[in-house]
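[Q] Does anyone have a clean structure-token version of this?
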Amino acid sequence: MEFKDSLMEFKDSLMEFKDSLMEFKDSLMEFKDSLMEFKDSLMEFKDSLMEFKDSLMEFKDSFIPYSLCPILIITRTTMIESAVRKQYGHLASVYDRRWKRYIADTLSFLKTWAQISPIDTVLDVACGTGEFEKLLLTENSTQSIVGVDISDKMLAIAQQKCSAFPQVSFHIASASALPFPSNSFDVIVSASSFHFFDDPLAALIEMRRVLKPDGKVVILDWCKDYLFCKILDITLKIFDSAHQQCYTQKEFHHLLTSANFTVSQATKVRFGVFWGLMIATASLKAEPTKEL
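[A] Here you go.
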């Protein structure tokens, strides 16, 4: 009996060892995924350096002495949007593949969080290659969606993905100049793009204008409360002319309230080892009741 008990204990030990090996294997897989995400971040950083170099060369080649040009007006917003357009024009063909894991994780989270009704008319600001549209249409093929972006090459891919859905359309437009009538949309979403906006308050005011009175805005973006995003923000400000600014959750909510929104739901969330994001759902602030 003692020998039998010893065998049983040995068997249990082997099972525990097997479980430990499986946990170790899972940890290695997670570490591998984290390394791949870090590699993608380095590739994005390399692309940003190349863009910055190209921008310097273009500035050098196009420089005109002031005495030869009586009026030279180049707005900062136009320059920034041009940089974003150029950067994502280069990245368009490889964007979905390079950021596959990040896109899948963040957009699935956004879709679950937003709780979009099948009858809602949706505006996706800075829609990129149309992956969020594709995700919504997988669940509801009749969803009415409009996507806007400033990169024509990203939009060309989005249009190709959604060509079988006539109720889905895409437009080249800036977030701060949306080409739609007031009170047009039930839900406005924006994912991983707020840090590119030169004038985020102007963009939020435009979203407020085209949002229906009972609609909601849902924005997901990098959060500077996380160390990696804080370092990334500092680095990209130096080397990437397209990048503008990451925000803390407090700063982000302040911008929303300044644009006359009320934040109804918000959280911070981490994806993998590196990426720390924040999301907020906001609605139009109720107008004060006027006394008769």
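[Q] Thanks! Anything notable?
[A] The domain at 1-286 is CATH 3.40.50.150 (Rossmann fold).
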